[in-house]
């Protein structure tokens, strides 16, 4: 968001919450304050902000949530903001019960230039002569919500032990969730065509890894936006994704392979998304298997969908909602 605002010539200063270092008030007194942390953390973050930064301004909370209903623990944060921005219509709907204006401000993935590094398959130790299916997620986002076990099962059902098919799983923050990582490793059954990578990558290298993939797979239970999907589409990749939640706002059958689903109670052993009174999606395994086989066998289809995906992101997530939101709260270039 910061880079997009600057690309629009809109003055923008940042406050680094981790280091608590003020970059500088480039906008002057009275400028709108966008606090880009979720509701539960908002009051604590404000404690570390100087009073002059918090007062006399329109305070905007930019929040993301991945279920149709917002947790009760988020409601207290409404008194700390004048309005709420959300990265998708799906997420925004959950916030409309708060009695604050809610505005959809999508991540401007199409506006930000995607700059992969020059690393290729060889530099990542990946084979040249196989179809690579990439799964990329962080365990801090909940293993159940990201559905890695289901994606392993779909890949194994689609391709078995074929050496010309590789499932590459790039998993972040594994050091904090060793039990989850152990479950994922166990689910692979020692398959030689499944590779798990847990090392840190720079942003440019992460994008380069995406470019190395033929297919990007996301059988998520729910997404509040779907940055992995959006970035993969912006890079012209063929994406297979659950046809539910925020990703449906930019991915459809003309630019990807949506997977049908069944709605099931939202249960999360970690507790963050454990709201069984609401539902999220369980992707149809047979449909996912069929989509994987179809995409893997047809490079022409992958190229066609990838080209359409790149164009969709360039036009659909071009920063328009961010520009309009900035103007609406009095921020001008």
Any overview of this molecule?
This protein has 333 residues and is an alpha/beta fold. It folds into 2 domains: 2-108 and 318-328, no CATH class; 121-316, Glycogen Phosphorylase B (Rossmann fold, 3-Layer(aba) Sandwich), CATH 3.40.50.2000. Helix content is 34%, strand content 20%. The protein has 13 helices and 14 strands. It has helices spanning 2-7, 42-47, 51-54, 89-95, 121-124, 143-146, 148-159, 178-188, 203-212, 227-234, 285-297, 299-316, 320-328, and strands spanning 15-16, 21-22, 33-35, 59-62, 83-86, 102-104, 131-138, 165-172, 194-197, 215-218, 238-242, 257-259, 261-266, 275-283. A 6-stranded parallel beta sheet has the order 9-8-7-10-11-12, with helices on both faces. Strand 5 (83-86), helix 4 (89-95) and strand 6 form a beta-alpha-beta unit. It starts with a helix and ends in a 5-residue tail after the last helix. The mean pLDDT is 93.
């Amino acid at each position: 968001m910061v880079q997009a605002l600057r690309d629009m010539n809109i003055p923008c200063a940042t406050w680094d919450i981790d280091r608590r270092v003020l970059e500088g008030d480039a906008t002057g007194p009275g400028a709108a304050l966008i606090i880009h942390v979720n509701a539960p953390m908002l009051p604590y973050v404000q404690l570390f902000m100087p009073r002059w930064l918090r007062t006399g301004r329109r305070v905007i909370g930019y929040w993301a949530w991945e279920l149709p209903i917002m947790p009760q623990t988020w409601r207290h944060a409404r008194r700390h903001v004048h309005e709420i921005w959300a990265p998708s219509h799906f997420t925004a709907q959950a916030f409309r019960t708060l009695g604050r204006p809610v505005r959809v401000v999508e991540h401007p993935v199409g506006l930000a230039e995607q700059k992969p590094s020059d690393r290729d398959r060889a530099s990542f130790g990946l084979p040249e002569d196989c179809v690579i299916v990439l799964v990329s997620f962080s365990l801090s986002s909940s293993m159940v919500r990201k559905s890695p076990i289901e994606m392993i099962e779909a890949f194994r059902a689609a391709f078995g032990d074929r050496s010309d098919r590789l499932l590459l799983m790039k998993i972040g923050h594994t050091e904090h969730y060793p039990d989850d990582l152990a479950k994922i490793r166990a689910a692979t059954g020692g398959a030689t065509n499944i590779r798990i990578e847990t090392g840190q990558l720079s942003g440019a290298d992460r994008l380069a890894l995406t470019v190395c993939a033929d297919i990007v797979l996301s059988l998520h239970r729910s997404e509040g936006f779907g940055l992995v999907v959006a970035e993969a589409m912006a890079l012209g990749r063929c994406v297979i994704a659950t046809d539910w939640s925020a990703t449906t706002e930019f991915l459809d059958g003309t630019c990807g392979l949506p997977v049908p689903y069944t709605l099931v109670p939202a249960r999360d052993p970690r507790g963050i998304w454990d709201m069984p009174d609401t539902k999220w999606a369980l992707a149809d395994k047979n449909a996912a298997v069929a989509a994987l086989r179809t995409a893997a066998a047809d490079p022409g289809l992958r190229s066609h969908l990838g080209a359409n995906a790149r164009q969709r992101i360039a036009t659909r997530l071009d920063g328009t909602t961010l520009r309009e939101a900035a103007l609406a709260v009095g921020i001008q270039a």
